[in-house]
Write a structure and sequence with these properties.
The chain is an alpha+beta fold. It is built from 3 helices and 12 strands; from the N terminus they run αβαβββββββββββα. The chain has 2 domains: 30 residues; 231 residues, Porin (Beta Barrel), CATH 2.40.160.20.
Length: 273
């Protein structure tokens, strides 16, 4: 008769091995599932973008023009707005595309203007004719007003333990279509020229190109409020490597912007969840 080996120690070892293997298999299977469940595949939304901007300008004509009116260059504040769609290519990589409006440009300021000093052409008679003791400053805002078509890749960097917060690295390219280019000159409070406090000048000295491209790099921080709604903050640095102006005067704007917005799950809405 054949004898069965019913050694209790061997049975316990085999049972422990089977249980341990099953536990590892279960943990391995659950890990990608939890990531997949926390990932929203397709989202859409919008953002507003407070922006600080300026530009690198050069060219002989620009230097002569700048020096003739004795002004200093500075940054300017503006506000953009965009609509976005975001698609998850894989677990750690999203593509983000949008359409929106943003101004590129810079400011120049004439401070402490005196009687008979020259202003930019298009500002009244072109000279200060006010002989009073009023403080006379003029800020010239050079505005390249664009429709933007940005495309970015967002690469996963870190996630919070509760899967609510996600941190990404962002980089991409933006196509810009020019709507209008002009100077808006604002006079400081209490100072007017021919009864006006501001002027809009279409003759800027820049030959603005119809199309322009700029690079963007930054980060994206997302907060998942629920399965259908994600809030995000996206600080970005943008730079135009090619001049946005033709001719002798060249201009390469740069900007720092912070997209603050909300995205909604289009995947869940389409599925009726």
């Amino acid at each position: 008769m054949m004898k069965l080996n019913l050694n209790p120690i061997n049975c316990r070892k085999k049972k422990f091995s089977i249980n341990f293997f099953c536990t590892l298999l279960a943990l391995y299977s659950m890990t990608p599932l939890s990531h997949a469940q926390s990932k929203v595949i397709f989202t859409g939304g919008f953002s507003i973008a407070p922006t600080v901007e300026s530009a690198f300008n050069n060219g002989d004509a620009y230097t002569i023009y700048r020096d003739s009116v004795k002004s200093t260059q500075g940054a300017r504040l503006t506000l953009g707005i965009h609509a976005w769609v975001n698609y998850s290519i894989k677990k750690n990589l999203d593509i983000q595309a949008g359409i929106g409006y943003l101004e590129a440009g810079f400011s120049r300021k004439q401070s402490g203007l005196i009687f008979h000093q020259s202003t930019y052409p298009g500002i009244g008679s072109g000279k200060i004719l006010d002989a009073t003791n009023t403080q006379r400053d003029i800020t010239y805002n050079y505005r390249f007003q664009y429709i933007q078509l940005p495309v970015m890749l967002n690469t996963y960097v870190k996630r919070s333990g509760d899967f609510k917060w996600v941190f990404n690295f962002s980089a991409g390219l933006v196509a810009n279509i020019l709507l209008k280019h002009q100077i808006q000159a604002n006079l400081n409070p209490g100072f007017t020229i021919e009864g006006q406090k501001s002027f809009k000048i279409d003759s800027t000295g820049f030959d603005a190109r119809l199309f322009a491209l700029n690079l963007i790099i930054g980060s994206k921080i997302e907060y998942k409020a629920d399965k259908n709604k994600i809030y995000f903050i996206q600080p970005l640095l943008g730079y135009y490597p090619l001049s946005v102006s033709g001719g002798d005067i060249r201009s390469n704007p740069w900007y720092f912007t912070i997209n603050v917005g909300i995205m909604y799950s289009l995947s869940n809405l389409r599925a009726g969840k």
